[in-house]
């Protein structure tokens, strides 16, 4: 196969490219330039998006003896990831920019370009597995062997036609073994730190980043139980459901317990706060459902649901309702925010490792 290896400059994508070469594929490496000003992105050898990362990717490609290119996706990244991130927070929702990047950049824009140029697949360093369906007619997305590095959650919005042209060569290996393999191949990125946080917010201060783009949109901080106005804030974009710190309140609750953000009302600018038990959710509605297997849910289906990239799972029953999915949790879960993605996994002998579907949370109760 002709394979386009997306090389971020980190160890995982370098080893993924090396494995594609070792498998006998005709491999070309590409690094995605995601900023018109790369120096404004995170620096310090963190493995994502910077000038130094592109140099690390080029060195790895040279060592592997494969052609290497840098493709400018900065404008598309700004529109589909950064602008979307700001708009979602402005609307009182909590987005996942890594999931959006995979969906819109790596497996839409990049894959489309790769196929147009005659490539058969895009190869990345994501920790996930693709397996054929039982009938052999399609593919399934499964969790990685390494549970600590599993990235199936942030890939769960991919369609079957995209997964058929995806390769995840490192998904069957644990991270320490990937680093050891890189060492054996003399890849300079073998000990490079993993990337964390959000690449386009270099200092990690999400609120300051949003303030600079949204501005001050003051509103009330309201006690959800009593209706009392407790204070003012600079905009709902500075908060997310479940947040405890940074509320700017000058006095504790009557019973001395901490307050949490319970809901956001972007039209009125109201941020409702209250006790942690008021965060408990037993039902979730998720829109724009995607079924990576190509098989939508049929009737009530027992599953487990994950609502954060690095969160745990909760047993549930889910049912498709048009392009929505309705999820009834067996036990209540706290801190579920609109805008997050609910990913459904099959709870079976494979420890719930098969991705059934995903949808963006629009409502909870």
- Report strand %: 25-35%
Number of domains: 3
Shape: globular
Question: What is the CATH architecture descriptor of the largest domain?
Answer: 3-Layer(aba) Sandwich
Spatial ordering of strands, largest sheet = 12-15-14-13-16-17
Organism: Actinoalloteichus caeruleus DSM 43889
Catalytic activity: S-sulfanyl-L-cysteinyl-[protein] + uridine(34) in tRNA + AH2 + ATP = 2-thiouridine(34) in tRNA + L-cysteinyl-[protein] + A + AMP + diphosphate + H(+)
InterPro entries: MnmA-like, MnmA-like_C, MnmA-like_central, MnmA-like_central_sf, Rossmann-like_a/b/a_fold
Domain tRNA-specific 2-thiouridylase MnmA-like C-terminal: 282-361
Keywords:
5-stranded parallel β-sheet; Rossmann fold; Elongation Factor Tu (Ef-tu), domain 3; 6-stranded antiparallel beta barrel; transferase; globular; 365 residues; SH3 type barrels; 17 strands; 25% helix; MnmA-like; alpha/beta
Protein described:
The chain is an alpha/beta fold. Helix content is 25%, strand content 30%. It is built from eight helices and 17 strands. It has helices at 11-22, 51-64, 74-90, 97-116, 152-155, 160-163, 175-184, 206-214; strands at 2-6, 26-33, 68-72, 121-123, 128-132, 139-143, 166-167, 219-223, 229-233, 260-265, 270-274, 280-290, 301-306, 313-321, 324-334, 341-346, 354-364. The strands form four sheets. Strands 12-15-14-13-16-17 form a six-stranded antiparallel beta barrel. It has a five-stranded parallel β-sheet with strand order 3-2-1-4-7, with helices on both faces. The protein has a four-stranded mixed β-sheet with strand order 9-8-11-10, with no helix packed on it. α1 (11-22) crosses α7 (175-184) and α3 (74-90) runs antiparallel to α4. The longest helix has 20 residues, at 97-116. It is globular. The model has no long low-confidence stretch (mean pLDDT 91). The active site is at 101 (nucleophile), 199 (cysteine persulfide intermediate).
